[in-house]
């Protein structure tokens, strides 16, 4: 009976966080792709000025990530994630009322605070605060639902902007945060695994726990392991952001038509969700480290397929790249949990993923210049970063042998 209750509670947690994550991603990260041209035209600036403000918001997210994670470690996720919806609503309202470029920049910087509090890192830290070491299934479930954020967000933003205008679209998203996101966040459990309990559990003798589930305590993990993990996630973050920002043009440089490039891009989202579903159903017992290695190398495999087989392999590129992204999102939450344990997980997540946020902020601008210099050969940069990320995760296994155990 208790097991059935735990499953029901797990489903409720996944549905709550999956829904709020979908809303948060759709109204922040996925907003500029649809609304940036209209924002730029209304404010009489070039579209890159809007994307530059969005990049600055990602920098704010990176800087505040450790602090946001520490707040969740201390207070739980209900207050922090609930607060993120208020921050998002205020930022989107400010964006809607922006009379100038400077005001728009200020609004995006404020939205960066909301992203630090309310995106995946905050959701994962909330799950670990509630579920402890048994968080992997819930993390996978949340990413499975939120994988549809772009599928929901892009068409909805486009429809609202066409029907009402981009400013009204921002106000509508702000209202959804207050009317939907905030009440759902209030339904989250207000308490979970207490930090003191987690530390006490980690301090137990190794003989008290089965060897197969041993995980290195946070204090026992060498700094080199943290550096390797942060580098791998940062390299993958640059690749993901660069491809998401420039894929149609990049594929056209390979010789595809615009329609063909858009069709390949459309395969990425469903491939992400399918890979997460496979992880959820069939790979629950797989080591997060091995999953992360395969996911990090997926983009390299996709590029080699495209270069080796030509444009006929472009759909395979979209599927393999998207599947790697899907699994990597899960690994971003589960691998740090396996390496460090639940004690201080939120703060550790903030530090590990901060370099990745900076890389994601740099990628649209930096990779755009690479495409101007190198043309389609710019794929060589993302190929190299994918291989380096996979190599770092292989080395990480030698530095932290406990990470090879499954959880």
UniProtKB/TrEMBL annotation:
The keyword Transferase does not apply. The chain crosses the membrane at residues 50-68, 80-99, 105-127, 139-159, 171-188, 225-244, 290-309, 373-398. GO terms for cellular component: plasma membrane. It is found in: Cell membrane. One of its GO terms (molecular function) is transmembrane transporter activity. Keywords: Cell membrane, Membrane, Transmembrane, Transmembrane helix. Pfam families: MFS_1 (PF07690). Gene3D superfamilies: MFS general substrate transporter like domains. It is a multi-pass membrane protein. Its main location: membrane. PANTHER family: CHLORAMPHENICOL EFFLUX PUMP RV0191 (PTHR43124:SF3), PURINE EFFLUX PUMP PBUE (PTHR43124). This is MFS transporter. It comes from Comamonas terrigena.
